[in-house]
Amino acid sequence: MGQTADVPALEARAREFRKTILRIITQAGSGHPGGSLSAIDILTALYFHHLRVDPKRPQWPDRDRFVLSKGHGCPAWYVVLAARGFFDPSHLWTLRQIGSPLQGHPDMTRTPGVDISTGSLGVGFSAAIGMALAGKRDGRPYRVYAMLGDGECQEGAVWEGAMFAAHQGLDNLTAIVDRNGLQQTGPTEERVRLDPLAEKWRAFGWDVQEIDGHDMAAVVGALARAGSATGRPAAIVARTVKGKGVSFVEGVVGFHGKALTADELTRALAELDGTPTGRG
Amino acid sequence: MTVRRAAGSRSRATRDAYGDALLDAARREPRVMALTGDLRDSTRLEAFAETFPDRFVECGIAEQNMAGIAAGLATCGKIPFVSSFAAFAPGRCYDQIRVLIAQPRLNVKLVSTHGGLTVGEDGMSAQAVEDLAMMRALANMTVIVPADATETAAVIDALVDHDGPAYVRLGRSAVPVLFDAGYRFAVGTAPVVRDGGDVTVAACGIMVAEALEAARVLAAEGLEARVLNCATLKPLDEAAVVAAARETGAIVTAEEHTVLGGLGGAVCEVVAASHPVPVERVGVRDRFGESGAPRALQEAYGLTAAEIAAAARRAISRKRRA
User: Is residue A17 assigned to a domain?
Assistant: First the structure.
């Protein structure tokens, strides 16, 4: 995007989004708070500074596409889509309930702004590659962004896609890896080692940046720079903290897929209200 | 509905008809694209790749990514035809088909040019005998097994205008051309290819030709068999199946596939629920294949006219006992 980012305003939004994410997951009684909080700063930068989208025309053919390949992080995405005007924020309180437009994992047939359904890890990334390929073949101006989990990079299909996108020179594609270091049952490096993760993407032919995924200025800068690589797809390996922003959730494996209790939520909201910035 | 049969004894592999049909489809519909995983030769798409290089996508040996790419292309208004062997698609990418194509009902066509035992000498790893059951189990999925080259062309032409996910299972080996050029195909219909009142043979794919031969054998014994071409396994033409049960009182199913969950399963589900009559299933008996010439495999695994005729006699005798 051409205009300068208002970083403090983005940080303030992300802080409010963190609170809403935790509230709606607790209301739902289940969901994935850890990976939602690690991703929210990047999602905020994308939707409130970077992406060319129009909530009034969710099917605008030349819109930028965003694919949440780590579909379990969707509470964060839903909160951002609602704030951006894709649907009425009142729907947030129906998350995961029967009949809700907001499913436990993203469903393109129910949720405006969701361009592809995901949930099973490793599949959404390939669909994003297909969107980027369509844009290239048709000479369309849009970019495609895919956010992957780091644990998701254990899926072989991710590397099928990485190889293909580089071979095709899909420089209209940006992959963002939410490198929070934890998967469902423990640290990624103890389950199946991923490092050196950025080197792997480089070896596959991608233009790679490594950033602090909670440093809003760095996030905004990396997203802008990713669009300038020519002939190669861009990857941003964003170092993040699972559960970022709430001391007793940060880095705790148990909060991968568990809602905060009412008491925990009260403490978390108090912490977030007292935290001056989202920076780590 | 009855259909006109072709004269003569020409043979052609359905995969050969597919390559020509998709090229024709691409000429009339610019949204059509073709994807393969290093199988442009086997899937007969070399002419497509040369004629429409911008609409051909070489995905390499990576079927999971290929299915996902197709889904992404479909969200951008394309009509992707994904071509592989049934062993690899759906075999290698079932989750992508389920989550990215079937669940969101995307307009992706999956075409397997090598299905069933008649893949032949490559042996059991390459011989999918369970793909129809896999694909039938997916909600929103249309499943079609053409009987010959003529029907294959008609199916591809129809699917270009049919919005939604579909799986088409073709074959590697030459099979008799049954239908003449005037043949019309409609998704979800099971036309009567030969009429009769003593028993019905509901067949798909290469077994339609076997069913017609079985009907000739039975006719010599004074038994008139109706032959239904159940090219569309899903949605199955339930009215045609129920009418067959009511009017002929016994049914034989015939498919180049395990008898579990494919056409035999589908017909039994309908007949049991709507008009119970004896059903005999001809197909692969819950086992895998092996290397061999296609015809030798058909003989060894009971995928023949003789087997269908024997099953018809059993079904008729059960009807008389009932």
Answer: yes
B 42-71: CB under 8 A from A: 54-55, 57, 59-60, 62, 64-71
Residue A2 falls within a domain, yes or no? no
Domain B192-316 in the same topology as domain B11-176 = yes
Cα–Cα distances in Å, from B83 out to A167, B69, B80, B175?
20, 13, 9, 20
ipTM of the predicted assembly exceeds 0.85: yes
Clarify whether B63 is annotated catalytic.
Answer: yes
A130-165 pLDDT, tens digit each: 999 999 999 999 999 999 999 999 999 999 999 999
Q: Which residue stretches of chain B have pLDDT < 50?
A: none
The CATH number of the domain covering residues in B11-176? 3.40.50.970
Cβ atoms of A119 and A152 within 8 Å: the answer is: no
State residue A279's pLDDT score. 42
In contact, A187 and A256? CB cutoff 8 Å: no
Q: Which residue in the list B63, B210, B280, B307 is annotated as catalytic? A: B63
pLDDT in tens, B131-180: 999 999 999 999 999 999 999 999 999 999 999 999 999 999 999 999 99
Contact with chain A for residue B96, Cβ under 8 A: yes
Residue A30 has pLDDT above 80, yes or no: yes
Count up the domains in chain A and report the number. Answer: 1
Q: Which residue range is the domain that position A163 belongs to?
A: 7-274
User: Considering the domain boundaries, does residue A116 fall inside one?
Assistant: yes
The CATH number fitting domain B192-316, selected from 3.20.20.100, 3.40.50.920, 1.20.120.450, 2.30.42.10: 3.40.50.920
User: Exposed, middle or buried: residue A219 (CB in 10 Å: 0-12, 13-18, 19+)?
Assistant: buried
List the one residue out of B187, B148, B156, B119 whose CA is nearest residue B23: B156
Indicate yes or no: CB of B68 within 8 angstroms of CB of A127. Answer: yes
**Cα A186 to Cα A253: distance, rounded to the nearest angstrom:** 6
Where along chain B do its domains lie? 11-176, 192-316
How far is residue A52's CA from residue A42's CA, in Å, rounded to a whole number?
15
Residue B292's CB is within 10 A of a number of other CB atoms, namely 18
CATH of the domain at A229: 3.40.50.970
CB atoms within 10 A of CB B180: 13
Q: Are B14 and B149 in contact (CB under 8 A)?
A: yes
Token pair for A47: 């939707």
